[in-house]
């Protein structure tokens, strides 16, 4: 059986995202702080979120990479990337809440609330850690992670389709 189109695109997306992040890390000027963000830059980063439609590319990774390519400082790029996700994540959560209320009534809300609160806490801790990390380190570790992720996807694709 041949590898699925989705899996094929996913590891190519992981490799492509890794290459773009490496390019951004290497060529990015890192001169703009969050206070220097223009409306145009905000719109461009909003559009960069669309790259996450490519399997294997994350929303935060695509916006972080675009911001670095535009000359933003690492911490400013990461902070704006996470702030940019708030509307989309909030709307997705509200859609889930509506679905839970429609399908299960109030009984379906408690698990959703517990999940949202635990996700919010773990996300906040991860963001705090990442911002501190980026103050002292480059994004090369994430480039290597994405390359490794691509390798794992290729292996799983080949191994899973060899039977």
UniProtKB/TrEMBL annotation:
A GO BP annotation: cell wall organization
Keywords, ordered alphabetically: Antibiotic resistance, Cell membrane, Cell shape, Cell wall biogenesis/degradation, Hydrolase, Membrane, Peptidoglycan synthesis, Transmembrane, Transmembrane helix
EC number(s) per entry: 3.6.1.27
Subcellular localization, as worded in the UniProt entry: Cell membrane
Class of this enzyme: hydrolase
One term under GO cellular component: plasma membrane
Sequence intervals crossing the membrane: 33-54, 75-97, 109-131, 143-160
Coiled coil: none
Membrane topology annotation: Multi-pass membrane protein
GO molecular function: undecaprenyl-diphosphatase activity
Catalytic reactions on record: di-trans,octa-cis-undecaprenyl diphosphate + H2O = di-trans,octa-cis-undecaprenyl phosphate + phosphate + H(+)
Family according to the record: Belongs to the UppP family.
Protein name according to UniProt: Undecaprenyl-diphosphatase
Species: Candidatus Synechococcus spongiarum LMB bulk15N
